[in-house]
Design goal:
Strand content: under 5%
Largest sheet: 2 strands, antiparallel
CATH architecture of the largest domain: Orthogonal Bundle
CATH class of the largest domain: Mainly Alpha
Number of domains: 2
CATH superfamily of the largest domain: Intergrase catalytic core
Radius of gyration: 23 Å
Structural class: mainly alpha
Number of strands: 2
Number of helices: 15
Order of helices and strands: HHHHHHHHEEHHHHHHH
Distance between the termini: 70 Å
Strand order of the largest sheet: 1-2
CATH topology of the largest domain: hpI Integrase, Chain A
Length: 305
């Protein structure tokens, strides 16, 4: 079996057995195909030295440590599969070292800034002077930002929500995340109210009302794209007096997690809400916990200045 066939077999396994998302499969395909075309003879017979030279070349070309680590992770998964399926007698990635990299703190927003963003979205959604098209966009954007900040969903999970989430009008709902894993997420009163207002607006438009998606659009997926939401969110931030470069759907997800921790939430609970499979992923927020502990000591310890 040649390298291309091995890559396809690996991707099929990831899709069927592990339920990998389309974006994950596309990333694996891109990284493995790049490695195969860069290594003489392809991946099928690559030795550890070949892989080390390939990764060293990435570093020389200026690839970020995070990109190198992602490509190495794809190679490890690939060769682990080949070894398990007896397509290779060894795993050449066993002696490879991971690139050293620091863990940057996640970009987030202060509670006051987040409040300004949400208030602006609510204000625009309530503006009765808007044209029909502008009113639809404003109600939709208000529902999107309220639900995102209330739940901490990944942007792909948010834009792909089924309309049944809003029809039930419940305080919690189940979302299917990475690897087809389900988790329960909460909905605040404001988020439910914004979704109800969006449902009413959505129901007035025949081109939207029949869709199974909460945020329908005339796209291949049938729902609003991540790119359109990200663009709309940035323009909303600018109108709220917040630098648009500071705001993105992922930043709001980080704000959800950071603000929970700042106000006393447990790290394990935040892990479950975010849908992180491993607590180490959630530990990028430990700086928030450290700040909270310092504040706690300074405010309550009898010897604190």
């Amino acid at each position: 079996m040649n390298s291309a066939a091995q890559i396809e077999a690996f991707l099929e396994m990831m899709s069927v057995e592990r339920g990998a998302a389309d974006n994950t499969l596309a990333s694996y395909r891109r990284d493995l195909s790049d490695a195969s075309s860069s290594i003489p003879g392809g991946l099928a017979d690559a030795a550890g030295s070949d892989l080390r030279d390939y990764l060293g070349g990435l570093a020389a070309e200026g690839f970020a440590a995070s990109s190198q680590a992602r490509k190495l992770s794809a190679l490890r998964q690939f060769f682990k599969f080949l070894y398990a399926e007896n397509m290779r007698p060894d795993d050449p990635t066993g002696t490879l070292d991971s690139p050293a990299r620091g863990r940057p703190l996640p970009k987030t927003m202060a509670e006051a800034e987040t409040g300004r963003l949400l208030d602006r979205a609510a204000q625009e959604a309530a503006d009765e002077s808007l044209s029909d098209g502008a009113r639809v966009a404003a109600k939709r954007l208000h529902a999107l930002v309220e639900v995102l900040y209330a739940t901490g969903l990944r942007v792909s999970e948010l834009v792909g929500l089924p309309v049944t989430v809003a029809l039930r009008d419940e305080r919690f709902f189940i979302v299917r995340g990475k690897g087809n894993k389900e988790r329960m997420v909460p909905l605040s009163g404001k988020a439910r109210e914004a979704m109800r207002a969006w449902l009413v607006e959505r129901g007035r438009n025949e081109s939207l009302s029949d869709s199974p998606h909460l945020f329908p659009a005339s796209s291949d997926s049938g729902h609003l794209s991540r790119q359109v939401f990200a663009r709309d969110l940035k323009t909303l931030a600018a109108r709220a007096g917040i630098a648009s470069a500071k705001v993105s759907p992922h930043v709001l997800r980080h704000a959800f997690a950071s603000h929970l921790l700042q106000n006393g939430a447990d790290l394990r609970a935040v892990q479950q809400l975010l849908g992180h499979a491993d607590i180490s992923t959630t530990q990028i927020y430990t700086h928030v916990l450290e700040e909270r502990l310092v504040r706690l000591v300074n405010e309550h310890h009898p010897l604190a200045d």
